[in-house]
């Protein structure tokens, strides 16, 4: 048949040429069983640190040189971009653990799990919208509660240890 594409590979290449394929990111979804809220905690501490840096950033004087104004704008935009990326990372890490790890049995045993996750997702959005230290501190607190809950589902006890990061705060770790 003239004009008919007979090779699926050729057809895929034509489609790809017309509509560029998107890059997608996902957890492995095997499921591998390897989950850890540590990255969510680090991301929450990063949000806190960016809000601290934004709060410490001195606005240039009215008669400041253009390069001083540019330096201020550059720092502010970088701090804001990093804060927003890490707010979203908190949400991503928590969503993956919630969606891929937690089971209906976990939710029966820990009925507060749904609310804990919901509050984190809302709080992370709030930290994207502003630069209030109290909002970032609340996000850290909520992610710590999530980490403790997560480790409880694995039968582990937890301990809090100073993060030793410039933002301060603590990290929740499992103990044997």
How does this structure look, described?
The chain has 176 residues and is mainly alpha-helical. The protein has one domain (37-175): Four Helix Bundle (Hemerythrin (Met), subunit A). It is built from six helices and two strands. The chain has helices at 8-18, 38-56, 66-101, 104-109, 113-129, 133-153; strands at residues 157-162, 170-175. Strands 1-2 form a two-stranded antiparallel sheet. A hairpin with a 7-residue loop joins strand 1 (157-162) and strand 2 (170-175). The longest helix is centred in the middle third of the chain and has 36 residues, at 66-101. It is flat, with a radius of gyration of 22 Å. The chain starts with 7 loop residues before the first helix and ends with a strand. The model has no long low-confidence stretch (mean pLDDT 90).
Task: Present the secondary structure layout.
Blueprint: H1 8-18, H2 38-56, H3 66-101, H4 104-109, H5 113-129, H6 133-153, E1 157-162, E2 170-175
Antiparallel strand pairs: 1-2
Helix pairs in contact: 2-3, 2-6, 3-5, 5-6
> Which structural class fits the helix and strand makeup?
mainly alpha
- Assembly form of the protein: single chain
Q: Report the CATH architecture.
A: Up-down Bundle
Please state the average pLDDT score.
Answer: 90
The CATH class assignment is Mainly Alpha
The side-by-side strand order for the widest beta sheet comes to 1-2
Question: What global shape is seen?
Answer: flat
CATH topology: Four Helix Bundle (Hemerythrin (Met), subunit A)
Q: Compute the CA-based radius of gyration.
A: 22 Å
Low-confidence stretches: none
Helix content: 55-70%
Distance between the termini: 68 Å
User: How many strands?
Assistant: 2
Largest sheet report: 2 strands, antiparallel
């Amino acid at each position: 048949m003239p004009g008919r594409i007979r090779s699926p590979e050729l057809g895929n290449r034509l489609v790809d040429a017309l509509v560029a394929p998107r890059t997608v990111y996902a957890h492995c979804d095997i499921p591998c069983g390897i989950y850890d809220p540590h990255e969510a905690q680090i991301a929450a501490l990063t949000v806190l640190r960016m809000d601290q840096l934004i709060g410490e950033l001195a606005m240039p004087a009215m008669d400041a040189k253009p390069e001083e104004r540019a330096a201020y704008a550059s720092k502010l935009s970088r701090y804001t971009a990093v804060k927003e990326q890490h707010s979203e990372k908190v949400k991503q890490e928590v969503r993956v653990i919630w969606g891929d790890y937690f089971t209906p049995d976990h939710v029966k045993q820990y009925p507060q799990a749904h609310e804990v996750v919901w509050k984190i997702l809302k709080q992370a959005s709030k930290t994207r919208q502003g630069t209030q230290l109290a909002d970032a501190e609340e996000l850290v607190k909520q992610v710590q509660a999530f980490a403790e809950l997560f480790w409880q589902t694995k039968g582990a006890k937890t301990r809090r240890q100073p993060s030793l990061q410039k933002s301060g705060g603590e990290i929740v770790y499992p103990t044997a």
